[in-house]
Structures are given as structure tokens and as C-alpha cells.
Design a protein that fits this description.
Layout (H helix, E strand, L loop, with lengths): L5 H41 L16 E2 L2 E2 L17
Antiparallel strand pairs: 1-2
Length: 85
């Protein structure tokens, strides 16, 4: 096995350090982005500022994302509708 001289050892150490820094940056970036996604999803369930939910489309008495519905269902079981010819 060939012995490494000082310059080769230095280059190897620098390469290892660069790889470690790149891995640390990638891991940190992923953790930060995952936390932002988690925070955004928690905020969406508690805050209504950016909500697309409409109370008129949610059944009365049901609460979704902090919005309580006002929709009253219409009972049409006894309807007497007939087809037009």
C-alpha cells in the first residue's frame, strides 16, 4: 500500500470536510422546509385568514377548520316532481 504525502492528506481532508458541509446544508434545508410545511398546515387548521371554506357549504352545526357551517339540508323525499315531455 502506497503512503500518502502531506499534500495528498491535506486534499483528502479538504474533500471530506466539503462533503460533510454539503450534507449538513442539505439536512438543515430539509428540516427547515419540513418545519415550515408543518407550521403552515397547523396554521391552516386554526386560522381562517387564507381559508377557502364557506359557511354556506358546510352543514349546520359542523365545524371545519374553525368555520361553523350554516347549511340547512332540504328534505325532498316527499317531492312530487315529474319529468317534462
Amino acid at each position: 500500500m502506497k503512503k500518502l504525502n502531506g499534500k495528498q492528506k491535506l486534499m483528502g481532508a479538504i474533500a471530506i470536510i466539503i462533503v460533510a458541509v454539503i450534507i449538513a446544508i442539505v439536512i438543515t434545508t430539509r428540516i427547515i422546509s419540513n418545519n415550515q410545511v408543518a407550521n403552515d398546515s397547523y396554521a391552516a387548521t386554526t386560522a381562517n385568514a387564507d381559508s377557502n371554506l364557506i359557511a354556506n357549504y358546510i352543514k349546520a352545526g359542523i365545524t371545519i377548520g374553525g368555520i361553523t357551517g350554516t347549511l340547512e339540508s332540504l328534505n325532498t323525499f316527499d317531492a312530487t316532481a315529474s319529468a317534462k315531455i
